[in-house]
Amino acid sequence: MAVNLTAPDPKDLRPVAGVRLGVAEAGIRKAGRRDLTVISLAPGSRVAGVFTQNRFCAAPVQVCREHLAGEAAPRALVINTGVANAGTGAEGLEAARRTCKAVSQVLGVEPQEVLPFSTGVILEPLPVEKIEAALPALVTNLRPDAWLDAAYAIMTTDTVPKACSRQVRLSDGTVVTITGISKGAGMIRPNMATMLGFVATDARLAKPLLDALVREAADESFNAITVDGDTSTNDSFVLIATGAAMSRELAVSDDEDYRKVRAAVIEVSRWLAQAIVRDGEGATKFITVRVERGASREECRKVAYAIAHSPLVKTAFFASDPNLGRILAAIGYAGIDDLDPAAIRVWLEAEGDSILVAEGGGRASSYREEDGARVMKHAEITVRVDLARGEAAATVWTCDLSFDYVRINAEYRS
Amino acid sequence: MAVNLTAPDPKDLRPVAGVRLGVAEAGIRKAGRRDLTVISLAPGSRVAGVFTQNRFCAAPVQVCREHLAGEAAPRALVINTGVANAGTGAEGLEAARRTCKAVSQVLGVEPQEVLPFSTGVILEPLPVEKIEAALPALVTNLRPDAWLDAAYAIMTTDTVPKACSRQVRLSDGTVVTITGISKGAGMIRPNMATMLGFVATDARLAKPLLDALVREAADESFNAITVDGDTSTNDSFVLIATGAAMSRELAVSDDEDYRKVRAAVIEVSRWLAQAIVRDGEGATKFITVRVERGASREECRKVAYAIAHSPLVKTAFFASDPNLGRILAAIGYAGIDDLDPAAIRVWLEAEGDSILVAEGGGRASSYREEDGARVMKHAEITVRVDLARGEAAATVWTCDLSFDYVRINAEYRS
Fold this sequence. Notes:
Chains A, B: The active site is at 194 (nucleophile). The structure is a homodimer. Chain A folds into two domains: 10-278, L-amino peptidase D-ALA esterase/amidase, CATH 3.60.70; 286-410, Roll (Ubiquitin-like (UB roll)). Chain A has helices at residues 59-69, 89-107, 128-139, 147-153, 207-219, 256-278, 297-309, 311-318, 325-332, 369-376, 403-410; strands spanning 19-24, 36-41, 46-51, 76-83, 114-121, 162-169, 175-183, 196-201, 225-226, 236-241, 286-294, 345-350, 353-359, 362-363, 380-386, 392-399. Chain A has eleven helices and 16 strands. In chain A, helix 1 (59-69) crosses helix 2, helix 5 (207-219) runs parallel beside helix 6 (256-278) and helix 7 (297-309) crosses helix 9. Chain A is an alpha+beta fold. At the A-B interface, helix 2, helix 8, helix 9, strand 14 and helix 11 of A face helix 2, helix 8, helix 9, strand 14 and helix 11 of B.
């Protein structure tokens, strides 16, 4: 059961002018579930994406990179679940291209204007013919208000569909919308991107701004979460700007309207990324790890990820056991050679309760076991670490490690 | 239940001339269990050690480093379980020093000739007075044949005591003995050393050779295992050479007798390290990850550890599910930027059965799911990876991730 996350109310998901969506049951791996999604974009839309750094990156990721690097402006995204089309060699690449071609034919656009995405089991061939068969009916039913359908159709081991919207009013009174969906629950330790995240806005953004924003938003959201430390072969995060809600183009980063849009895009991205952690496989706790006063952001991230990846820390959270020495051990092996253990302070925090746990290289003298136990009982907990060696900071979100993580992943293919 | 590991037969554990051992129930954390061990060494013994790289290293590790760096030759080791004496600040250091002093008084040696070791819960104070109270009776009962008692007394979440012996006959007919013990089951990803490992020989080794050998042996054994990727605060591996079985000193590395001793020391160390993996928390499978034809040993180790640490790979082994894409994904995110996925080959092997799983960036054409399933059913499995880019190789041993890992670590302190 996801941590403080329920399916969104469809009426809270605002259509984005210039975007229509449709889903189908293509029967790609199992029958009777929606497993194919098409997102069609109005002419003039701009798209930027960031993708997995995994060397075994999936065929659709390779095709996406190719199409985004070319001259053609994307007009459609096609997403299948069930089969990841990763570890599939030359045949996999061919299958991804055939998928693009099939979409281009039913929509009347060019194949290189289609971006393909897959998620599911690695090493199995993609049954393209099932996608080709399902597409004609699917595209007759594209609708601007089908965001929740799409959020459901891209789920794999997710238990809750993930979607959210924000609207911002610009200086001239124009209202622009940002709506996004994401999926993912396991194999989650995005590196430059995430499992699958799609955020669209009808703001009009110059391409250089859009390219910068997709990276900023990824860094503040999908690149700051982990469930199990496994970086997927298919991670993709895409930001779409249709421009359909406004005529003026936002082209400079200090434009006040751009700042509003930027803040809302980051907010939506972060919500979607945190939703993946809340729905992390077997998750019962949502943990924020905040590392402050480091010498660099990179070392703060190292410490935060060492804590967030430690199976011992994660099982202690699952057990609501304030076994805090495990947090100190993780800080100690994070790989910062000249770290001074005696200078570090660690707090456990939940709902306004802030408990100093460690200082001076050991347990804080004010610490009482019952205080730690009280904080650990909450479903949302923050571990705050003060490295006392600089001005940088970083935040990582993760979940606990429970029996259900093992059950879900032992049974994944059955 | 440990994987193909049972308590050793006491008669298979050979005394090492110059070494006597004793254990006691000191009641350090729980009553009624042996939790204190003293290993006394004859004059003239030489000792070398390697210790955790964790910045939050335990107080006894700091004192060991100090004493080994000084002029005094060690005459005794004292080991307690229950409390790790890590994350205990200045008081912890004082407690480790008091422990050394107490041992020195009952044995009639100097405090700086005593090496202290602790393992157990982090962040809790060490009750030195309990150790002081138990020592006088303990030292009246030091025996050369108490290796198995010591192996039991250093256990924490271990389910099986770990000890083994080898003997080698030197060129002049002298027989030298190598006997060692180890403990550890969780928080296992040693970095330059392991949880606790003690190996003694009655061979006479020059100090420079001993110093080199402890590192070589650690690299070939404890530094090549992982259970959960957590590097402990207390990892220590110590090699003792009493010299009591021979008068000649082995002083050069190409001496044939030294090579025999060296091989046996490495064999004992590796057996003890593998025993920790076999008894890994919740382990049902013993996995060897062998990475071959890499450009460097370091990159082979990176790939091997990426596979060995992946919770998804580990749960697939637990489920006996040949979900091999997870192995490819782990190779892909191991951090080798210019890796060519199309050149890599991966085999699954067990008891002479060798199945080519992946090649050309995807599933091998000869691969059949039933072959993978057959190999995965074994309790001992090798994953062999050919990187096809050099002559280096590395091996890492690990276990699977089961429900019991979560149960053991969720309940550890209760």
